[in-house]
Every structure is written in structure tokens, then in C-alpha cells.
């Protein structure tokens, strides 16, 4: 089953004016249901414009978007259905909290979906548990919470709609390493439990390598690459030239390879590096000598 | 070496909070040092930084910056000229519609004569590598470029000390590299003292010294090599280490003999190369 499909998706800002700019230049791709895709590209590459097309916040200048086989703009009156199918967590989502209590804020999306009161309260509770919010914060004002907690409330608000496709735009920006790890493990958990499709926009190549199976690279408004982590991060030189990067471990292994050592090409996480080095040193992976 | 920062037993509590955000922090920094401050969110590192140019005043202890007691209200302007601060979000720090006017903003407020403003703005823009953008509108620049404009606005005031509170948190890899390169150059070439608050361990590894804060206290104060050799402790306080350090740490746990002061890619490559060559010789 294809979860997300775009056909020659194109978006032009301010067309037919001196400020005309093509932001998304004929993207054609298919994302399978249940895939975890990392989206990378430098600021201004067009990746944010692209993801805003996937839940109908932006309308293509030309081309098509299909979600679970349905043409998004076939009937513009039904666009709300796509907003519920595809959940989008923006950058710094904690600035979008507005309700009196955490519970009401998380309930906002499901309420708009027209669900029953019982279903709403059930979804709010499940979503809050997912992101690790304690029951006692549910009646607090979201503005009393710490930055990290606010962000979890905002993410829970999207999870409560139980979207089939979940898109997160730099969900861990500005968080410390521990906070980053918590958010990532919660997203992975959600991905596994619900077998939903996840798109994760990130500037951290290390985080993308650790969590995503596939990587989508946007450069200069073009779809530069869409493939497995192995395929994409193997193109170190091209990625570096476009101002992106590869994980630090990958750089280390590329250099070892250049110096003539017979190391594997596909090392993208510390865990893989450890296993590979132990193999080369003739020790069983992970066991003490 | 003369101390530019001399903080003794700083204590600070935000109003309405039972627990103090700073619980007796003593730090001194010499002129010309480049110091990274690490700590998880809520560890007190930003609170500490805000004491350095009197955005916050200590409720206990005393803080001298460039010889000025930060609590001395009469010297507030002198202090702000001595210590400049750059924040996380470049969009919140830019006030003018033309790059060079933005850089001139602080100087105009200091009442500097126009000819000197012109000269200082030009040299500040050259120092951050943004001179050719001086007539651009800031909103058309990338995040990294905007952050360098914010830095230019600070250094045009010729501070002795520049404090940067997570200046790269909102930037992409290219923007991060631009900003870090600029900060490093200000330190190495112009001798400016730099305090860099960051969550990126590779940025901290490139500084002369690292201060780790935890729970309102100073936990570690040492060279990057010494700080990152303590992987277990850093992980316990919610921090990370560079991946180069982590690989070596994991291998050492498996009983493989490697040095424990590896923090950069190059050092890691060298260590692994020598390890793998030795192994090759044994087999041969």
C-alpha cells in the first residue's frame, strides 16, 4: 500500500511577478505505508513547502498528491479529511498551544473531528501516555509547563488525531540530548505500535541515520535523492557539497576506507561502527574479550 | 592572565520558584579564553550566562565582569559595552530593514560619532564575512547569515567578552558551520573572550575549556579532552559525547586498548588506523 504519492508536484511562489520562485520542482515519489522516512535539506531548500502539501495546507501549482490512494484535491471540499489523515507537527510547536488546560489542548484536534466524548477522552489519555505526560499535568495550564513538556503536549495534540501519516518538522530543535532521545523514542514507539507512516525533518544526520529507514533529500527545490539510509549516505561528497553532511561515524569510516582499510561502507550509527570494528578485530560483536 | 569574569558563589532563584536556579556557582575566565558551557535544559547554564551582562542580578554572591560589579547600576552601560550577548533566534535580534543599519543600531544608541559608526560597521561586517551583504534586507538572508549579522551588531560595540546562548540551535549544518567558524575566528584572531552555550558536543570539543552545569551547580570545569573522557558521568547528567569519543568508549568497554582522550574525527581515525594496522601485522 502506498501511503503518500506525489506526481510531478510543483509549487511556485508569487507566479507571474518579479518575485516568482519555484519552491518545489516536479517531485514524483511514493512512500510505502509504515515507512519511517528522514527528510533532509538545508534551509530554503523547499522541504518545508513540500511537506505542507502533504496535508493540504498548501495547494500544488500543478501536479498531484495522493494519500492512501486518494487524490487530495479531486474534491476541495473534502480537504479537511486529509488534514485528519496526515498529522503535521511544526517546528517549535509549543508556540501553538492556546487552551486553558493541557487536556483541552490535546483534545482540540479530536473534537474538531466530531468524535464522541468518550472517544475523545480515550484518545487524549492514550496520546498523553505516549509522550510521557503525567496525569497530574492534564489540568494545568500548558503555559505553566517547561519547554520540553510544552513540546510534548503539542505532539500529543497531533497524535490524538491518530493520523495515518505523521510528519514532524525538527521535533527536537533546541532540546538537550536527553530531551531529544525521549522524543525520538516516543516517535519510534508510536511508529511501531500503530504502523503509521512517519516523515521526520531533521538537520541532524546522526538522528536520521539512527531512526529512519529511508532518506529523502531536497536540494535547490529539487528532489535530489530518495532511497535507503545506505544508498543516500553513501553519497557523502555530494551531500557535503550541498551544505548537508553525513553522520560523524560515517566520516570516520570513509577516512579509514580512504587509507586502505577494508571496512564496510554502510556505517551510519555508533552501534554499527562498534559491531564492524569488533568484527575486524576478531572479537564477537558486543561480548567482552 | 587577567580574569575577565570572576563569579563567586552566585545564587539566583526565579520569583515564585522554590528551588534556586543557581546554587553557588564560582567561575573565573581569563581574557582570550573560549569556553563552552554544557548542561541539560534547566541546569542553570542560561541563568548563569544572563548574570554576565546583568540581565539577571545575583541574590547571593558577587559577579565581576571586566572589573565591573554587575550589581552596580551606575556602571550598567559600561558593563553592557564590555559584555555582548547573542541569543538563539536570529529573527528576534534583528531590528532594521537593511543589514548595515541593523549593525549600527547599538552604536547609535551609544552616541558614537557617525564617521566612527561607518568605520566600525564596515569592520564588524568584514569580521563576520558579511560585508558584501551590507545593503541587503535581513529577511532575505539565511539563518546562518542572520545570526552572523546579530554577531556583527555585538562586536561593532567592541566588547571584550561575547556570550552566545545556543547560537546554532535553529540553524542547518551549513549555517552552524558558518557561525562556529566566525566565533572561532573572533577568538583566535581578535582575541575576544567567548562564552558559548551549546547542546552540540562537537562545538564544545573545539573550545579551550568546558564547563558542565547540573542542577544549578558547576559539575565539571576542565579541558575538552578531560571532560569527554568521563562518558558515564556526562550521560548520567543527560549529556552526550561526540560520536568519535563514543566509538572509542564502546570499544574500551569490550576490553580493547585505546586512549581515552579522543574527541575529534581525526584523532579517532588515527587511533583506529593504528589499532587495525597492528591487528594486520599480528595476522601476517
Which labels suit this protein?
heterodimer; A: 289 residues; alpha/beta; Rossmann fold; 38% helix; disordered C terminus; B: 284 residues; four-stranded antiparallel sheet
Question: Can you give me a brief rundown of this structure?
Answer:
Chain A has 289 residues and is of the alpha/beta class.
Bulk shape of chain B: globular
Q: At the first level of CATH, what is the class of the largest domain in chain A?
A: Alpha Beta
Provide the CATH top-level class of the largest domain in chain B. Alpha Beta
Name the structural class of chain A.
alpha/beta
The assigned CATH architecture of the largest domain in chain A is: 3-Layer(aba) Sandwich
**How far apart are the termini of chain B?**
54 Å
The percent range for strand residues of chain A is 15-25%
For the secondary structure, the number of strands of chain A is 10
Count the DSSP helices of chain A: 11
Return the domain count of chain A. Answer: 2
Name the strands of the widest sheet of chain A in spatial order: 6-7-8-3-9-10
CATH T-level fold name of the largest domain in chain B:
Rossmann fold
CATH superfamily of the largest domain in chain B: P-loop containing nucleotide triphosphate hydrolases
Explain the overall architecture:
The complex is a heterodimer of chains A (289) and B (284). Chain A has helices spanning 47-53, 79-85, 102-112, 117-130, 147-159, 177-194, 205-211, 229-233, 236-241, 248-258, 270-280, and strands at residues 2-13, 21-32, 36-40, 62-67, 70-71, 86-89, 165-169, 197-201, 214-219, 222-228. The longest helix of chain A is centred in the middle third of the chain and has 18 residues, at 177-194. Chain A has 289 residues and is an alpha/beta fold. Chain A has 2 domains: 2-233, 3-Layer(aba) Sandwich (Rossmann fold), CATH 3.40.50; 247-289, no CATH class. Chain A contains 11 helices and 10 strands. In chain A, 46% of the residues are buried. Chain A has a 6-stranded mixed beta sheet with strand order 6-7-8-3-9-10, sandwiched between helices. In chain B, the strands form 2 sheets. Chain B has a 6-stranded mixed beta sheet with strand order 6-7-8-3-9-10, sandwiched between helices. The longest helix of chain B is centred in the C-terminal third of the chain and has 19 residues, at 265-283. Chain B starts with a strand and ends with a helix. Chain B is of the alpha/beta class and 284 residues long. Chain B folds into 2 domains: 3-241, Rossmann fold, CATH 3.40.50; 242-284, no CATH class. Chain B is globular. The model of chain B has no long low-confidence stretch (mean pLDDT 92). Chain A binds chain B through residues 42-44, 146-148, 173-179, 203, 205-206, 243-245, 247-249, 251-252, 255-256, 259, 261, 270, 273-274, 277-278, 280-283, 286-289, and chain B through 39-42, 88, 142-144, 166, 169-176, 199, 201-202, 238-240, 242-244, 246-247, 250-251, 253-256, 265, 268-269, 272-273, 275-276, 279.
Amino acid at each position: 500500500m502506498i501511503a503518500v504519492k506525489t506526481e510531478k508536484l510543483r509549487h511556485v511562489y508569487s507566479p507571474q511577478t518579479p518575485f516568482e520562485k519555484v519552491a518545489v520542482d516536479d517531485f514524483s515519489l511514493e512512500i510505502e505505508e509504515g515507512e519511517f522516512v528522514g527528510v533532509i535539506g538545508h534551509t530554503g531548500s523547499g522541504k518545508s513547502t513540500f511537506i505542507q502539501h502533504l496535508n493540504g495546507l498548501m495547494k500544488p501549482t500543478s501536479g498531484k498528491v495522493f494519500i492512501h490512494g486518494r487524490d487530495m484535491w479531486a474534491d476541495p471540499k473534502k480537504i479537511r479529511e486529509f488534514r485528519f489523515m496526515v498529522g503535521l507537527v511544526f517546528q517549535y510547536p509549543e508556540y501553538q498551544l492556546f487552551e486553558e488546560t493541557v487536556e483541552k489542548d490535546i483534545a482540540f484536534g479530536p473534537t474538531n473531528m466530531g468524535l464522541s466524548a468518550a472517544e475523545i477522552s480515550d484518545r487524549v489519555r492514550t496520546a498523553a501516555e505516549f509522550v510521557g505526560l503525567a496525569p497530574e499535568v492534564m489540568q494545568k495550564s500548558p503555559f505553566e509547563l517547561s519547554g520540553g513538556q510544552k513540546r510534548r503536549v503539542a505532539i500529543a495534540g497531533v497524535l490524538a488525531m491518530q493520523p495515518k501519516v505523521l510528519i514532524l518538522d525538527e521535533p527536537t530543535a533546541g532540546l538537550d540530548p536527553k530531551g531529544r532521545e525521549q522524543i525520538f523514542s516516543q516517535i519510534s514507539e508510536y511508529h511501531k505500535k500503530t504502523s503509521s507512516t512517519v516523515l521526520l525533518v531533521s538537520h541532524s544526520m546522526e538522528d536520521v541515520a539512527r531512526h529512519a529507514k529511508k532518506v529523502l533529500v531536497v536540494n535547490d527545490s529539487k528532489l535530489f535523492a530518495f532511497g535507503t539510509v545506505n544508498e543516500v549516505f553513501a553519497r557523502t561528497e555530494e551531500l557535503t557539497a550541498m551544505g548537508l553532511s553525513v553522520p560523524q561515524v560515517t566520516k570516520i569510516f570513509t577516512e579509514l576506507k580512504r587509507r586502505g582499510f577494508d571496512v564496510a561502507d554502510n556505517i551510519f550509527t555508533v552501534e554499527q561502527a562498534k559491531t564492524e570494528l569488533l568484527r575486524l578485530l576478531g572479537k564477537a560483536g558486543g561480548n567482552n574479550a | 592572565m587577567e580574569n575577565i569574569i570572576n563569579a563567586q558563589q552566585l545564587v539566583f532563584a526565579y520569583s515564585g520558584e522554590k528551588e534556586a536556579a543557581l546554587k553557588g556557582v564560582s567561575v573565573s575566565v581569563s581574557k582570550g579564553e573560549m569556553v563552552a558551557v554544557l548542561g541539560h535544559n534547566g541546569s542553570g547554564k542560561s541563568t548563569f550566562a544572563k548574570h554576565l551582562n546583568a540581565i539577571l542580578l545575583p541574590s547571593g554572591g558577587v559577579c565581576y565582569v571586566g572589573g565591573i560589579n554587575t550589581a552596580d547600576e551606575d556602571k550598567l552601560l559600561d558593563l553592557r559595552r564590555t559584555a555582548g550577548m547573542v541569543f538563539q533566534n536570529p529573527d528576534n535580534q534583528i531590528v532594521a530593514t537593511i543589514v548595515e543599519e541593523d549593525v549600527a543600531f547599538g552604536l547609535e544608541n551609544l552616541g558614537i560619532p557617525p564617521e566612527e559608526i561607518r568605520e566600525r560597521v564596515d569592520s564588524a561586517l568584514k569580521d563576520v564575512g558579511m560585508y558584501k551583504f551590507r545593503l541587503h534586507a535581513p529577511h532575505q538572508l539565511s539563518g546562518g547569515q542572520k545570526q552572523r549579522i546579530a554577531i556583527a551588531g555585538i562586536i561593532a560595540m567592541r566588547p571584550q567578552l561575547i556570550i552566545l546562548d545556543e547560537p546554532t540551535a535553529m540553524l542547518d549544518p551549513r549555517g552552524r558551520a558558518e557561525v562556529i567558524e566566525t566565533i572561532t575566528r573572533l577568538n583566535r584572531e581578535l582575541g575576544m573572550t567567548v562564552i558559548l552555550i551549546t547542546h552540540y558536543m562537537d562545538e564544545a570539543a573545539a573550545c579551550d575549556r568546558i564547563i558542565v552545569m547540573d542542577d544549578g551547580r558547576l559539575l565539571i570545569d576542565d579541558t575538552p579532552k578531560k571532560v569527554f573522557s568521563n562518558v558515564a558521568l556526562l550521560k548520567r547528567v543527560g549529556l552526550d559525547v561526540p560520536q568519535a569519543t563514543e566509538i572509542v568508549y564502546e570499544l574500551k568497554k569490550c576490553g580493547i586498548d585505546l586512549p581515552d582522550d579522543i574527541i575529534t574525527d581525526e584523532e579517532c581515525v588515527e587511533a583506529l588506523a593504528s589499532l587495525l594496522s597492528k591487528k594486520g601485522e599480528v595476522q601476517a
